[in-house]
Amino acid sequence: MGLGKLETIHGTSPLPFTNTFNASEHVATKDDSICKLILYVEVPSLRIQVWDLVMLVPNALFLIFILLRFNRARLKLRATSSPIFMAFYVLVVINVIISIIRCLVSMFVSAAAEVGSYVDTILWVSVRFFLLSTEISVIVFGLAFGHLDSRSSIRHVLLATSFISLAFSSSQAVLEVFYPDEHFKIQGKNTNVFGHGGMLFWFISSIFFTLLYLSILVLPWTRIRERLALPTKRSFYIYILFLVVLNISQSVGSGLLMYSIQEGLCIVDATTCVYFTLFTPLVYHTFLSEFFGISQPSIMFSYKAQVDDGLEDDIVSLPHQHSFSSLKTDSDYIYQGNNTYDSTQLDNTCAGENSVSLQSPDSIAGYSLDSQTIDLPTNSKQ
After folding, report:
1. Which tens digit of pLDDT belongs to each residue from 303-331?
2. Which pTM was predicted?
3. Cβ atoms of 51 and 38 closer than 8 Å
């Protein structure tokens, strides 16, 4: 099929636009290719697609893990003075739940039917929307608003990232419905599996995110580090490196597939599986697991109840990463390494200053920090 003769996802009328690119003649991926077969083949006698099962099992296991640790997480979240932990936790829970819902619905709705195909596309785009919102929020909190530790600032950041993700997902949905990629068309069933908005869209977006994350990765070696309190935790940069490698792989796979090189579909499948099954657990491990796992975190902080009625400034500004101030909030624990606190504590001890340690919820269960003001005492030792 030549360029410009792309069929719609449910009809046969030609469209003036194609969502693929080829310098010569477009060649659709063969249905019996192993990397295409896994996208639509069903488990014998169960009529469940293998691809949905591959996505479901890791997400279901992670949800079980969250449920088993829910009570401990609830106590920790009640004990902390920082709402950013709750924001991260809610995003993680929403991501895993919506992913499981998509898999279950796809198992019971036939993608060959017109309604089923639309439902499957909407669910895929919805999952991508929540994952991308989390992805962008993590970066924004770390680089720009990580020191705005109040409920109102977190709401503003989440709202802004939601609009960005909505624009991305809406574009992906439009391309997927009206201009489906021929490489994801199942000739034998006259239907399309989800093609992520087409390889041209995926290639451009992957290149953009690759450049974005690469620039973040090199920030500590630039002069900008003197103006920003960059995250110091090594796990944060490992997280960024993971996204760099993932997006580079996606751009390579989608680029190869645009030129109808069949191996590109295998790369696309692998990156899709990794992103939709491992990204959410990675966010949890990088930004929440250490906080939920320790019994007595030695986090120095000065907490004042936030007032979001506009009468007072609701922003808690954290000091620069190189300063030795005892004014720390709990949100620093997400992005700043333990060595930051150790060095600060040592400096304050030598100077005769004092700190307050965030007590474990195991020892203060039932005690709320809401609407309390904790002032650093003088002439006392921790």
Report:
1. 334 444 444 444 433 333 433 333 445 55
2. 0.73
3. yes
